[in-house]
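Limitations
The structure tokens in this dataset are predictions for the assembled complex, not deposited experimental models. Users should treat interface geometry with appropriate caution, especially where small molecules or nucleic acid strands are included. An illustrative entry is reproduced here so readers can see what is and is not provided.
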Amino acid sequence: MTSGSTILVFPRSTSSASRRLLRKELLRALRDSERPVIVDLSDSRALDHEDVNLLLDCVSLAVGRDTQLLLIAGSSDMQVLLDVIRVSSLVPVFQSLKEALEFKPQHRPASHICRARDFNKAGVVR
Amino acid sequence: MELAAIVMTPDEKDFASFAPHPAPHFEVSRPFYSALLPILGNDVRGMWADRFHKLGVQSFWLGSVSHDEEKIYSQLCSLAKQGVERLLMIKLKFYAEMDLADLLRFHSRSQKPMTEVHDSRGKLGVSVLDRPVVLAATQKGESMWFHTDFEPVMYPFTGYSKRILSPKERQELVGDALVGSCALQPLGTEIREGVWLGAGVSLAGSAKVLGPAYIGDRTLVRPGATIGPFASVERDCVVDCGVTLERSTVLPETYLAPGLLIRRGLVDGGQMEDLPSGTVVDLQRSGLASRMAAPRFTATAPKPAITAANHSWFPTSSSSSGWHNAQL
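Predicted assembly:
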């Protein structure tokens, strides 16, 4: 963990046992973590179909649970791949860990979300 | 005066990009992106053949430059010995709307034995050579276009040209042709303004084609896919469900997996080049795209043939010499 974020390197190994472990860790982090989850793909030059499936599962889980998922592409190859599978239009993608850690999410924390009673009749926030 | 023409497919070194990826896992489905691939269904060699036919060229040859300059050199020598007095040499690395008759007039007027065509960016790869140039090279035993003593005259070409070995320029050519900014016409039926379909295209009811766009012969577009604007899918491709293709080209016999977003890209089998950055990525490993088996040509599926003459083009690999004489 760094600065309140969970960082996972993806994929760490090509062995199926390691892959299963990574899958478990990633999905658990996305389910349970209150903090942003950063998935670092910068060690990968390409993704195989299992990697793509796992990545899409992660994105789907993060979007469904409103967990902040950030990706580090690391290379232009990976950036293009993430664009092609539309992941970069769903979650923020960065070139480096530094950029990802500096990222400030645009949405407000849950406690600051306006409720219906905060609006006046004209729809303006009080 | 007997005039002959030679059309050469370019050497590997001419390819600026789309070269094999250095990573060891990378499987290259084609040795490199080829200038012989169709552009909006058009065979580039066929276009040259049409021009030769109109020009009254008595015979022309097709050949590949790949790795064997010596082969071309010996072919040129034999042409000279056969009595061919003037040679028109085309290195197939560009598309240009060139008036060959004007080039030959310019060459005759210059009274020099060698003319090379240049545009504002340099050599285009078209030369006119008179017999003495070829014979002199024969005597020297050298590959003539590198070591000739004859100073070429420059023919300045100011018309429309694109270097088609650059995927970026190829896409520019596709865009220009789709909006009618150049003379190249998509080979198919214009079903509505700016949308061309080749023969035997299968388009799902929920697929969208946003013009200008082109879909080549026998290509299958599955439900929810969106093709265009400024997109070209060449022959025998499968675009699977939900794919979005914008300002991009898909080369023949390519399969695209469901849901992909291809923007400003050139896809050739399992490889894709991102046009703005020039980055080449392997889509095959991740199962996102692949090369499909070439279809067998049947009575209902037309053979790729040129229209300029009553003969077909042959793949250069089928000849031991690598050269084919196509008498017009």
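Some entries come with short summary sentences. For this one: The domain at 6-118 of chain A is CATH 3.30.750.24 (Transcription Regulator spoIIAA).
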